[in-house]
Design brief:
By secondary structure, this protein is an alpha/beta fold. The protein has a single domain (about 1-35, about 85-190), classed as P-loop containing nucleotide triphosphate hydrolases (Rossmann fold). About 50% of the residues lie in helices and about 15% in strands. The chain has 8 helices and 5 strands. The protein has helices at about 15-25, 35-50, 65-70, 70-85, 90-105, 120-130, 150-160, 175-190, and strands at about 1-10, 30, 110-115, 135-140, 165-170. The chain has a 5-stranded parallel β-sheet, with helices on both faces. Helix 7 links the parallel strand 4 and strand 5. The protein starts with a strand and ends with a helix.
Amino acid sequence: MKTLILITGYARAGKDTLAEGIIMGSKRLACHVNFADSLKQSCDCFMQVLQLGGSGSSKTFRNEAFKLQHRDFLVAAGMFARSIDRDVFALAFSRECKRIAAMHDEPNLTVIASDWRYMNELTISRIMLGDDWNIFTVQITTAGVQAANEEEGKSIGDIVRNTSFHLSFGFNPDNKQAIITEGKNLARKIGT
C-alpha cells in the first residue's frame, strides 16, 4: 500500500530534516513532495515571464536563501491563491502524489510532505487519495522554536487541536543528527 507521511510543526523545528532521515532509512521508493511546491513553481514561472531569473539561476524559490529573502512575496502569492480556493495547494499536492504513483507504478511508494500547515490539507489528501493510501501524521517540536508569525501559530494550532497524531517528536535545539536518526527509525517502524 502507498504511504503518505504528513509532518507538521513550526518553521525551523526540523521537519525537512526528519523527512531527510525517513528517506535515508526507507527500504522502498520514497519521495519528498511538499504542499508549497506548486506555489514555488508558480512564483518561479512569474519570474521567468518577467525574465528575472533563468535556467540555472539562483533566483528561484527552490533556493533557500532566495526564498527567505523574498518570503513576503511567496506568502502573499499563497494567500492570494488560497483566497480564491482555500484547497488549491492541497488539490495540486494530491494530483502530484497520484502522478508520481502512476509514473513509478510502485504499489509501496512513500511520499513525505514536510510542510503540512493546514487542516484542510489532511482532509483533501484523504478524499483525493482514497483507500489506496495509508496516511501517517507526525508532529515535530524543537525546544525554543515558536510560531514564525500569527498565521502559522493559528494554522498549526488548529492541526494540533484537531489531530490525533500517529507520532509526536520533541527535540532539543541544534540536534540535527538526533532528528535524522528518528526519521530513519520511523521509516523502519512503518515499513517504508
